[in-house]
């Protein structure tokens, strides 16, 4: 039987992580799938892109669209324009798109317009907040996909509510597969950042912030950085700064004030180092989607600086708490970080994200797709 020709399009940091186990499964298990990887170029810095290819042993993409930064429309349009030609010449049977980044939607739209079936990995997530660019991306991608791989039961229900029951599969989450693969390495080695900063386990809170709703509005970002400085007088703060956030903090002229004895600002980190920092933290303060889930899986209490989440499963038993206002940061983080019972309670919660075999399930379904 001839092989299914699949094209996987990735470009933003979380997409590399979500795709790595699927790529490994497809390539190393000699499946009936002939896979080509395309990098949109949305993320281009070494610390935002190359490091993940190295750590997760992702093969070199056969093309890079070099979309880089720009407004959402520009970024999406450039990816679409350059990808169209590639799809036309490669003529894949299916285009696989993971997650909810601009790259996801751009690739899904391009393929759908060329009548090439789209397969969405991490389908069905909903925060209910259409002001988030990711909510727009994930909703539209689901609706133009031919096959949807949902990570959780909640995601399946969300898709059913939108009339997308057909060709929706509950597969589990490929981020669980990725996490399981690297945890032995994380546990074996000492965190480079912790060693350099002289920090001990449970000595600090890990902070990651990059959502436009938090960092693009400078007065809100100013409130956030003041809250972090206040918090750092009571508890050490380790803060790997995303390029978007770095640029806005530079505009506020507060970068030097965010590198003190208690507030340890560092560059964005790779996957292994990030999991290591998270695994040893007393608490996570974040606005990332993926990290809310990773902290749940590693039993680290999480405080999310947002009023909605696309991972409602993490809200069980205060494993993750949503806070809308930056002024709540010091109080909530201090109370959460010192609550030893909470960590133990999270350890005993049921894991709704799957057993680490999502990539196998997805591959089986892709192998049985009909060639178009
Ligand atoms: C994107 C995704 C978001 C994901 C995040 C992870 C969208 C709409 N958002 O947001 O869902 O959680 O990635 O990081 O797709 N930049 C660099 N170097 C890089 C990449 C970006 O300096 O390698 C700068 C650019 O100047 C850009 C800014 O960071 O203006 C934001 O990058 P962009 O890709 O637009 O969105 P993210 O905020 O990274």
Category from helices, strands and their pairing: alpha/beta
Mean pLDDT: 96
Assign an overall shape. globular
Strand composition percent: 15-25%
Number of strands: 13
Instruction: Count the DSSP helices.
Output: 16
Instruction: Characterize the main sheet.
Output: 7 strands, parallel
Bound molecules: uridine-diphosphate-N-acetylglucosamine
Termini separation:
14 Å
Question: Secondary-structure element sequence?
Answer: EHEHEHEHEHEHEHHEHHEHEHEHEEHHH
Helix content: 40-55%
Which ranges are low-confidence, i.e. pLDDT below 50, for 5 or more consecutive residues?
A: none
Strand order of the largest sheet: 3-2-1-4-5-6-7
Question: What is the gyration radius calculated from CA atoms?
Answer: 20 Å
Map the helices and strands.
Elements: E1 4-10, H1 13-28, E2 33-39, H2 46-55, E3 63-64, H3 72-90, E4 94-98, H4 102-113, E5 118-121, H5 133-143, E6 147-150, H6 153-161, E7 168-170, H7 174-188, H8 192-197, E8 204-208, H9 212-215, H10 218-231, E9 236-240, H11 243-252, E10 263-266, H12 271-280, E11 283-286, H13 289-297, E12 302-304, E13 320-322, H14 329-337, H15 340-347, H16 358-367
Parallel strand pairs: 1-2, 1-4, 2-3, 4-5, 5-6, 6-7, 8-9, 8-11, 9-10, 11-12, 12-13
Helix pairs in contact: 1-2, 1-7, 1-16, 3-4, 4-5, 7-12, 10-14
Residues 12-14, 42-45, 48-49, 69, 100-102, 133-134, 210, 242-244, 288 line the site of uridine-diphosphate-N-acetylglucosamine (UD1).
Folded structure, characterized:
With 372 residues, this protein is of the alpha/beta class. It is 46% helix and 15% strand. The chain contains 16 helices and 13 strands. The strands form two sheets. It has a seven-stranded parallel β-sheet with strand order 3-2-1-4-5-6-7, sandwiched between helices. Strands 10-9-8-11-12-13 form a six-stranded parallel β-sheet, with helices on both faces. Helix 13 links the parallel strand 11 (283-286) and strand 12 (302-304). Helix 10 packs across helix 14 (329-337). It is globular and about 65 Å long. Residues 12-14, 42-45, 48-49, 69, 100-102, 133-134, 210, 242-244, 288 line the site of uridine-diphosphate-N-acetylglucosamine (UD1). The site of uridine-diphosphate-N-acetylglucosamine has 20 residues, from helix 1, helix 2, helix 5 and helix 11.
